[in-house]
Amino acid sequence: MKLPVQRLFNRAIWIKVHFYLALIAGFFFALIGLTGSVSVYREELDTLLNPKLVIEQPQDKRQSLDNMLAAVRAAHPNRYGAWTLEMPRSAKGVVTFWYDKPRETFFELYAPLMVSVNPYTAEVVASRFWGQTLTTWLLDLHTQLQLDRLGWNAVGLLGVLLIFSIGSGVYLWWPGASGIWGALKIRHKAGMIQLAFDLHRVTGLLSASVLLLLALSGCLLSYPALLQTLAGSSGMEHGETGRDILSTAQPNNHPVSLESAEFLARGPFSRAELRRVTTPAGDSGIYRINLRQSSEINQRHPYTTVWVDRWSGHIKEVRDPSRFSGGEVFASWIWPLHTGEAVGASGRFIWFIAGLMPLVLYVSGLLHWLHRRGKVNDREVNLAALRPLFDRLKKWLQRTGLMLFRLGTLLLKQAKQQAPQVLKRLMALWQWLHSTLINRQKRIGR
User: In this model, does residue 99 exceed pLDDT 70?
Assistant: First the structure.
């Protein structure tokens, strides 16, 4: 009789686990991976499809934030409450104003109005709803399968299943130390089915580490309560800006303007970059200014936040990521790791390729399964017919390799400059993990 531990490492059991996971959820793994790959370059694709979102001739000076807000309110006079403006990350980008709950999409999980404004002329160039553009529709498909809250939870569960699928696949691949080289071979002369099987094993192994990272980070993004528990702090989920803070000052006839609120917020962070400003809603509303310090890993959604009272002009509260605990630093890395922001331009390309791998694994595995059931016949692989395609692919890879080499050189220079900051974050994370383990051991000892 086999012991429970022996049964756990029974190869036949893991073959069934791997097979049924692929059969039941493989299509969704491929769908989420493919839409995730496209979403890596969502902003670039959006501007390609909508040229009006690109400012061809940037000017030396932009309009004031108050002028841009006035233009948005003139274009949408019946939309009351808070607006959040997001600054562009390049001189040719537009300012985006977000209105969270428009009446047209009020009952959807997430479908804000996006108003694009030329920062140099304060002209409204586009008004669109989230989910009604190609890139946002694909992103909704990636994050929630177009099923709102049910789909959001389902994607988190699929992330857990993908972790088990990858783990079982790597375990089944392991040939022992003496057989590693043979397990990495791709035998194209042995027929189409053998080629598909070899591609399945090799691509699965090469992409396993990145896919595990994406699956784990995606799962944590789908279940923010779990992320906040690990961080030991609230307000750390993606898109959160900390707790709601209300004004305690008496309303008057001289409210603080947007530009003034930004100026006041820069007091504690004079060298920070402005990313977002949320306007007050109602008499008790307050300005929330979101800045990015150079030490922050998050590019689009940094955590530096300053709350400014619009009636008194006082700074009510400040959130400074440089004072985060190890758990909060860990939580702040999840989003940029998942999207590829944390790994730079060349890393985003690797993330893009990794997102395509579940589709390759699904098709190659399905082909092998259909052959075993007698639905697909094996055939010879004619590489001669594919030679022109390989030649073009070779030239493309050479150009891409040169581009990645140049990007790598630039990233290396940046890495040398940021190494002390990264080391400081890693040390903070290590201290948090160490203290957590010690406290847990103490509780067990009691």
Answer: yes
Segment (H or E) for 155: helix 148-173
Do 51-132 and 234-324 fold alike per CATH? yes
* Helical pair 387-445 and 344-372, crossing angle rounded to 10 deg: 100
Measure the CA–CA gap between 132 and 145, rounded to whole angstroms.
15
Distance of alpha carbon 90 from alpha carbon 93, whole angstroms: 5
CATH for 234-324 is: 3.10.450.40
Q: Which pLDDT score, from 0 to 100, does residue 434 have?
A: 58
Using alpha carbons, select from 206, 211, 197, 218 the residue that is nearest to residue 154.
218
Beta bridge partners, 123, equal 118
Evaluate whether 109 touches 148 at the Cβ level (below 8 Å): yes
* Rounded distance between C-alpha atoms, residue 177 and residue 38, angstroms: 37
Least confident piece of the model among 94-108, 278-292, 315-329, 380-394: 380-394
Q: What was the pLDDT predicted at 1?
A: 45
Per-position b or e across 254-292, b if 16+ CB within 10 A of its CB: ebbebebbbebbeeebeebebbbbbbbeeeebbbbbbbb
Return d(Cα 295, Cα 272) in angstroms, integer: 10
Q: Is the pLDDT of residue 248 over 80?
A: yes
Q: Domain map of the chain by residue range?
A: 1-50+133-227+337-381, 51-132, 234-324, 397-446
Rounded CA gap, 359 and 37, in Å?
A: 11
CATH of region 51-132, choose from 1.20.1630, 3.30.70, 3.10.450, 3.30.1490 = 3.10.450
Strand-pair category, 304-308 with 315-319: antiparallel
Angle (nearest 5°) at CA 9 between 7 and 13: 70
